[in-house]
Design goal:
single chain; 328 residues; alpha/beta; Rossmann fold; four-stranded antiparallel β-sheet; 11 helices
Length: 328
């Protein structure tokens, strides 16, 4: 599918801080957990932006802040020119029809007391899109679209496997005919064989309904398969952003190189010649991140400048953005 140059989503200096409190009865804030700390990127209509990074770096928080499940501490999220952070009440509810989310855990994200028909049909009821028989027919159609038997409409989530439950989650996201979907690690809880089926389903749906994805994952091989561009995140900040193949063929940031060196290659000859990059130490706490560059405490190329100044996240040609003083 041809990707449009029309920007659908523009994120500018997005910050999501959670207060760290102390005390049992009289609580008071002692610090902030900087889960997301100043992200800026855009997503074009019809494309898939992959967001990768290790656990705890703020990927899922970024997705939830974009669709306003979390209200950002600072920054703006412009969807077709409208700043979502300024919307409330009915205005935000109307915009939410155009943005949906597929959650990571297919077991926890579905209400066990509701039937499949109720789960998939509820968004239509909330947004008053269909009622009665029309809603039931629409639900059956959506189940068929995601590869499930439409006559499963009266069954409950516990009667399905993990992969089938995630398909129900996809059908629920499609129920209000959105334009943009945040896929929050939608395959990480599934078996490898089922992961491929869900990824292929998401790609087919993107072509059929002209969807735009933010695809969050920690598996770089999965992200490479589905993404047009990939953003690499570390401790609440973006360190690199470029096209999918460019990132794999020409990584620039030391953290990206370390991540890619950990991805196994199904060729024993190539794998034997390849050198692993082992990062020393642990990820710093988001409560008190390092001064300057967040990655400097684990970087083998760290310089004095890295501790004194934060590297700018800027373009170094052909849409390749990097935040590293080694690029200067």
């Amino acid at each position: 599918m041809e990707k449009s140059n029309d920007v659908l989503l523009q994120v500018q200096d997005l910050k999501m801080y959670f207060p760290l409190t102390k005390g049992i009865i009289f609580q008071h804030k002692v610090a902030d957990i900087k889960a997301v700390d100043g992200l800026s990127f855009s997503i074009r209509r019809g494309e898939t932006l992959g967001l990768v990074g290790e656990s705890g770096c703020g990927k899922s928080t970024t997705g939830r802040a974009i669709v306003q499940l979390y209200r950002p501490t600072e920054g703006s999220v412009h969807f077709e020119g409208r700043d979502l952070t300024t919307l409330k009440g009915e205005g935000l509810r109307r915009m939410r029809r155009r943005m949906q989310m597929i959650f990571q855990d297919p077991y926890a994200s579905l209400n066990p007391r509701m039937t499949v028909g109720g789960i998939v049909g509820e968004p239509m009821m909330i947004h008053k899109l269909a009622d009665g028989r029309a809603r039931r027919e629409k639900v059956m159609e959506l189940l068929k679209v995601v590869g499930l038997n439409p006559y499963f409409i009266n069954r409950y989530p516990h009667e399905f496997s993990g992969g089938q439950r995630q398909r129900i989650g996809v059908a629920r996201a499609l129920a209000v005919e959105p334009e943009f979907i945040v896929c929050d690690e939608p395959v990480s809880a599934l078996d490898v064989s089922i992961q491929a089926q869900i990824i292929n389903l998401l790609e087919e749906l993107q072509d059929e309904f002209n969807l735009t994805y933010l695809f969050i994952a920690h598996d770089l091989s999965v992200v490479r398969h589905i993404s047009d561009r990939i953003a690499v995140m570390y401790l609440g900040k973006l360190v690199e952003l470029t096209g999918g193949y460019e990132l794999y063929d020409n990584p620039q940031h030391p953290y990206t190189k370390a991540l890619l060196s950990a991805v196994p290659i199904p060729d024993p000859v190539v794998e034997k010649k390849r050198q692993r990059i082992l990062l020393e130490g642990d990820v710093p706490s988001p409560v008190s991140p390092p001064s300057g560059c967040n990655f400097r405490t684990r970087c083998q190329f760290a310089m004095d400048r890295c501790a004194e100044e934060e590297p700018p996240f800027k373009e170094y040609g052909n849409g390749h953005y990097v935040a590293c003083w080694l690029m200067e």
